[in-house]
## 1
Amino acid sequence: MADRGQDTRFPGMFPSGNVRSMRIGLFVTCLTDTLYPETGKAVVTLLERLGHRVDFPAGQACCGQMHFNTGYRREAARMARGLAAAFRGHEAVVTPSASCAAMIREYYPALAGETGDAGFARDVAELAPRVHDLATFLTDVIGVTDVGAYFPHKVTYHPTCHSLRMMRVGDAPYRLLKAVRGLDLVDLPDATTCCGFGGTFSLKNPDISAAMCADKVAAIRQSRAEVVTAGDNSCLMHIGGALSRLRAGVRAMHLAEILASTGDAGAATGGTP
Amino acid sequence: MTTPAGATPAPNGSMPTYLGMPSFPSAARTAVADSQLRRNLTHATTAIRAKRANVVRELDDWEELRQAGKAIKEHTLANLDTYLLRLEESVTSAGGHVHWARDAAEANAIAIDLIKRKNADKAVKSKSMTTQEAGLNEALAQNGIQAIETDLAELIVQLGDDLPSHILVPAIHKNRAEIGDLFRRTISEAPGDLADDPPSLTATARAHLRGEFLDAKVGISGANFAVADTGSLVVVESEGNGRMCLTLPDTLISFVGIEKIIPSWRDLEVFLALLPRSSTAERMNPYTTIWSGVANADGPREFHLILLDNGRTATLADETGRQALRCIRCSACLNVCPVYERAGGHAYGSPYPGPIGAILSPQLRGMTSPADASLPFASSLCGACYEVCPVAINIPEALVHLRARAVQSQPHYPERIFFSLAASILSSPGRMAFAQRLGSLAGSAVARRKGRIRRLPPPLSAWTDTRDAPAPPPESFRAWWSRTRGGAR
Amino acid sequence: MTAREEILARIRAANGPAREPTEIDAAYAAIPRDYRRAHHDSEQRDDIVALFAERAADYRATVEPVPEADLPAAIARAVTGKARLIVPDGVPEAWLAELPSATTIVRDEPPLSARELDAIDGVVTGCAVAIAETGTIILDHGPAQGRRALTLVPDFHLVVVRADHVAPDIADALARLDPSRPHTLISGPSATSDIELIRVEGVHGPRNLHILVSG
C-alpha cells in the first residue's frame, strides 16, 4: 500500500505505480443524503481530489438496513432490489457508511435468495464484492493513506461496530487520521464498545441505548478530544445527539469531512451530526 | 424450511417463563436504574473479558479450533437421530439407562419416579442449565423431594429465593457484601463473625454442604458433552461439587439436552480447549469428570441419562435459528455484551440470558408471549458476541432472522404501518426527494438551536428524551448534486 | 408413539431422512481440523515436563520436581502433619518408605464409606496421564489411583507425576486413555469464581494439591 509519493503539494497523496482514475459510484445512504449532506459532499471532494471520477446514480434510495434489522424483510428486499439495480455497471461503489456497506455484502445475497428473483440475485452478485466502506477503499483499493488533508484539532476515533466486526476495516481509519496534517489523534477509552445506537434498538430499548451512549460520551470526554469522528453518520447522530444535549463542547464529525478538509473552506464544512 | 411453525407439528418446549415477566425493554429499564447491580455486573464482566482475551491469544490456532468446533456441532445436528441412537446404545452397553423426554414435564416425571423408587426425599444437584430450563427443582418440591443446589452460585440463588442471572455464574448480580448478608441469615454453619471476603464465604458453603454430599443417596447433574461412540458423559466444573454429586451417591440422574452430543471421543480435544478458555478464562477448569455408564465398584451403581427435547427439535427445524443449538454454554457472549452488562440477566426472563438467551429462549419456548417476542430485539447488533463465540454462532444473524419471525407472530400494527410507509418512501428516489423537501421545510420550523431538535412526539420521543435530533438541512445531498452537477449520471 | 420415536421423527422432519451410517462417517471424517493437535514438540521432553510444572503451579498447586530416588523423602516431607493417609492399591511401597512414624496408612479394603473417607487427612496417588499445555493431571482410577472418591473427599491430594506421564497437549493425552474407564481431569486445587468472578481456591474438592514431578 501506498506511501510513496512525489513531492507535490500533497506529498504521499498519490500511490506509486499507476492506479488509474476510476469511475466510482457514490452510495451516499439515505441518512447522509437526508440529514448530513456535507458528508456526501466531502466524499465527492476527497475522491475527486485524488483524481477519480465520482458518479451519483440518481436511482439510489435506501439500502433497507433499518427494515431488515427490525424484522421487515419483505420491505427490505424491495429496497435492496432497487439499490442493487441503481448501481449496475460500476467498477467500485463507495459509501460513507460501513454498516450500509455491510448490509449489502453480508445480507443482500440471502435477501435475494429469499425473493427467488434471478435478476436481483445477479445484481447482488455483481454489486456485493464492489461495495467499499470509504476508509478501506482509500487504504486498500486506491492504496493511499495521506489524502492531503489538514485539520488542526484534537480528534478521537470511535470504531463503529459494523466497521470493526463486519467490514473489518482494522486500522485503516487510524492510518488515515494519523496522516492528516495538524491533527492530534487521541485514544478513546474502551473504544470498541458499542455506542448503543443499533438502529431501531435506540427506540425499542431506549433505556439501555441511552445508558450505553452515556458511557461512550464519558469516554469521549475523558479523551479530551474536541472532535469525535467515525465512519458512520448513524452512530454519530446518536453520539452527537447526546453530546449536544449535554452541551459537552465536543463535535461529532464524519471521517470523510476530516479527510476532505484542507484548512481553507474545508474545515468549516462540518455537517457535525 | 425457514419457519419451524410450519415445518414441524411439534410443540415448542415448556420452559417456565419467569412468572409475570415483563417484556425485555421494561425489565431492562428497572435494571438500568439499579446502580448497585450495574456496578456488580461491570466489575465482574470487565475482569473476565480481559482474562479471556489473554488466554485465547495464547493459542495461535484458536480460529481453527473454533471452526472445527462449529463444524463438529453442525455435522452432529445434521445427523442428530443417528448420533442419539449411537449414544443410547453405548450408554446402555456400559450399564446405564437411557430415557427420552419430549418436554420438561416428561423429563421431570421420569426423575421423580426414579427418586421415589429409591425412597429418597432429597437429592444433591450439580450445576445444570438443563434442569433450570426444565424447572426440575420446583417439580421435585411439589413431590416432596428437596433439591440441594451445590454449586456455590446456585446455592446463593437458592438460599436467596432468587433467580439465576448468568449461565456460568448465576449469582453474578450479587456482590460479596450481599452474599455475606445472605449467608449470615440462612446458613446455620456460618460463624457469627463471618466476613464478606470470598474465601470465608466459600469456606462457609463447604461446611454447609459437606454432610449433604457424604449422605446423599441420589445425585442429579447435567452434562457438557455426551460422546456418542463411547457413551461418555462429560461434566466440566471448578468446585468439586460436581465430582461429589457424580461420585458419592448410589444413583445418578443426568439431564442432557439432545444437542449436547458430539460424535467421538477425539472431539473432546477440540471442546476441552474451547470451553474452559471461553468460560472461566482458564487453560483448563479445575475438574472434569468423564464416565460411561457405571463403573465396577467406583461411583454410582445406577446411572440414568434423560435425553431432553423441550423445543430443541423445533429449533433444529429453523435453518438459520438452529445454529443456537451449537451453544456449549460458556457464557463468553454474556461477558462481552454491552446490553447484558446494563440490563442484567433477569431482564431476559429465562435461565438463558444474554445474547445466546435472546436467540435460544424464543426458539425453545416459541414466540407466543410478548416477552419472548421482545428478546430478539434486545441487542444493538454490535457483534461482540459472535466475535467471542467458541463455536462461531452468528448471533446477530440469528437475532435479525428471529426479529422477522417475531414481526410475524406478534405483529404490532402501528409499527407495521410505519414501516410500510417508510418502505414506500425509502424505496423510491422520487418520493425520497419529495419527503426531503418537506423535511427541510419542517426542519427549519422546529429546530431551535443550530439545527438541533430537542423534542419530538412519540414514538420518536424515545430518542429526544436523552439525545438531540438533527434538523433536516435546507438542501439534501441529492438536491445539491442535482443543482450543481446536473442531475443523473 | 413413545417419546423416543417422536423425538427421532421430529429430528427427521427437520433434517430430512436419516443418511446411511457409512455416509455419515465419511462426512465426519471430512470435517476440517486445521488446528494444531500439538502445540509443543514432543521430542523436547525436558521442556514439556517443565511446561507442565509451570502451568500446574499457575493454578496454585504446589509443584516440586523430584529425582526418582528422592521420592520417598519428598513424599514424607509433603505429608508431614497428616495423621491418616489413604493409599490406593498399586502405589509402590518404596514411596512410603520414609513416612513419619506418626502417620498411619489406611487402605481402602474393605471400601471406606464417604463418612470414613471424610475423616482421612490426605491421599497419595500416581496418575494416568498429564497435560503440559494446560497443567492438568488425569486419573483413570486404575492402579495407584484408587476409585474416584479417594481423591475427592480427603482435603489433601499428593500426586506423583512421572516425566513419561506428561503429554504435550490435550489431543495426545486423550489418545492415551481408555474411554471405557471413568476419568477425572484435575487442574489445580478446587476453586470457584462464583463471587464477583474472582477465583478463590478451595471449595469442595481437595483444597491442597501437591504435585511431585519425578524423573
## 2
Amino acid sequence: MIQEPILSVHNLTVRFGTGRKAFEAVSGVSFDLFEGETLSLVGESGSGKTTIGRAIMRVHPVSTGSIRYRGQEIAAAVGTKDEKLLRQKIQMIFQDPMASLNERAKIDYIVSEGLYNFRLFASEKERRARVENALLEVGLLPEFASRFPHEFSGGQRQRIGIARALVMEPEIIIADEPISALDVSIRAQVINVLNRLKRDKSLSYLFIAHDLSVVRFISDRIAVIHRGHLVELAQAEELFSRPLHPYTRALLSAIPVPDPDAEHNRSLIVYDPSMHRYDSDPPAWSEAYPGHYVLANPAELTTWVANATPEPALSP
Amino acid sequence: MKRTVTALPYPARPEDVEAALFVPAPFDAEESERTGYSRYSYWRSTVRTFLKSRSSIVLLVLMISFSVFAFAYPLVSNTDPNEVSLELSDWNKRPGPGAGIFGTDGLGRDIWARTWYGTRTSLTLGLVIALFDVGLGMFMGALWGYVRGIDRVMTEIYNVLTNIPRTVVLVLLSYILQPGFWTIVIAMSSTGWISIARFIRNKVLTIRDAEYNVASRCLGTPLSRIITMNILPFLVSIVIMETALTIPYTIGVEVFLGFIGLGLPVKEVSLGNLINLGKNNFMLYPYQLTAPTVVLAVVTISFYIVGNKFADASDPRNHV
C-alpha cells in the first residue's frame, strides 16, 4: 500500500549555540509518519528525542533539513493562515503533568486556550460545550472545568493535558514521554485513553519514550535514536525480533523479563560506540529488510544481517 | 454511612466475617474520577492567611486609619496649615489647651493640622511614585525576561542606571528642574523602575521555560496573553511587596530631600518640610520634631510590615 505520509521529516538537524559552543542535538534525522500510525522514538536521555518533537512543534528552530505536513514545508516561517492550521492540526502532550499546566488558571481556560487563540468558537456556549466534550473524551467530568490543576492527581492532570490537545481536533499528536512521569499504577489510564482516541479519531502519534515495554505495546513502528542520530527503524515486532544495530540490541537486552529464571540468566549487552570504524568507512541509512532501516556502513550491514537469525520474540 | 456490625461468634467462621463486614461494591468509572473539591480561591485564601496574624491586623487598622485620616482631615477641620500668626504669644506654643494637640511652630502655625496635611502630601507622593515604579518596572521586567533579544541592551541600561548613585541623581534633578511634586516623581521613577524590572526579570526567567509556557507556545498563544495569563499571576506577591516597600521608601526619600533643603518648596506642607523645620528648633522645642516624626514612623513601619505580611500571604505555598 503506497500512502502519502502525513508528516515527513527529512535530514533534520537542530543545533544549539554558535561557534565553539555549538551543540548538535539532532543530526540528519529522517522519518515519515503515516495517517493513523503510532511511530515511537526511543533512545536514552539526551539523545534528542524531545528536541525532534519540539522542532516539529516549531518551538526549537530547525538548523537544516525539512519538515513537511501533508507535503507542505513547515520548518521555516509560515503565513498566518497556515500557522493557524498547523497549530490546530499538530498538538503536543507533555512529559511532566505537574509542570505542563498553568497553576493559576482554571481547567476551563487551560483546555480552551487554543480555542481562544484562533477564535475557534462562535459563542461562549459552544466553547463551553467543546471543553466539556474534550473532558468527557478523556474520561474526566465536565464539572472539573471550574477547578484548578493542583486539585487533580497526576493521571488526571495528564488527561487534562490530552484534553487541551484534543479540543483543537488535531491530526497529529506528539506525545513527549507522556507516561514516564506517572506512577506505574496510573500509566495504563493514560495509555488506554491514547489508544482509544487513536482508534476513534484516526489520530497519528509520534510517541517519544524510553520505556521499551510500553513502546512495544502501543507502536506500529519504532525508531531508535542515539546521540542525535537515528540508528534503526522498523515495524515494532520486526525490531523486537530482529534487532540489527548493536545499540538497539543493547536497549532490548535491558528490558526486564517477568520470569525469575529468565531474568536471572538475562545477559546485558553493553553498547560501545568505539566499535564502529566510521572514519574510514562512513555509515549510511540502509534498508536491511523491507521496511527495516539501519544506520551502518556496508561491512557492518553484512555482518549484522548474517548474525541476525529470525528468532522468536523475546517475551511471549 | 453507618452500619451496625452484628456480634460474631468467636472464633469467627470466614463466611460469616465476609457477609457481615464486606459487601462487594459495584465499580463505577465515573464515580472513581470524582475527587475532593476544595473550592480553592486564590484571593480568599490570601486574605485568610493574612488575617491569621494578629499583629498584621493591628498594623493594617493603623495603616488604614492613618491614611484615611490624613486624606479626610481637611473635611473635618477648618484649620489652615499655612495660617501665620503675628502675635508673638502664638509662636512656639507647647502642646496643650489652646495650642492644638501638637502645639504651634515658630510662626504660630498649628502643627497638628500641618502634620496631617504633610502626611497627605507624602502619601500621595509615595503612591504616585510606587505606581510609576511598579507599573513600568513590571511591564519592562516581564518583557526583559521573556524576550531574549533585548536582554543585553536592558542589562547595559541597568548597569548604567544603577551605577549612578541615586542621591546624586535626586540632587541634580532637584537643581535642574524647579523643586516640586512632579520633580520628585520624575527623579525617583526615572531610576526606581529598573531595579524592580530586574527583580521581575529574574523571576520571569525561571518560569519562562516551564513546560506550561512551552505548551502555550505550541498552542500559538500570543505573547501578550502569555504575559498576562501565564506570567503575571505568578508575580502578584512580588508586585504587592514591591509596592508596599516603595511607598515608605519614597516617603523616606522625600523627608531626606526636605531635610537637605532640596525637597518640595517650603510653602508646601509635607513631612519632609515639617521635619526640616522641626530639626532647626529641636534643642528648644523638641515637640516640633517629634510629633511629625512619630506619624512618619507609624505610617512607614505599618506600610512596610503590612506589605511584607501580605506578600507572604499571597504566596500559595503558605495557604495551608
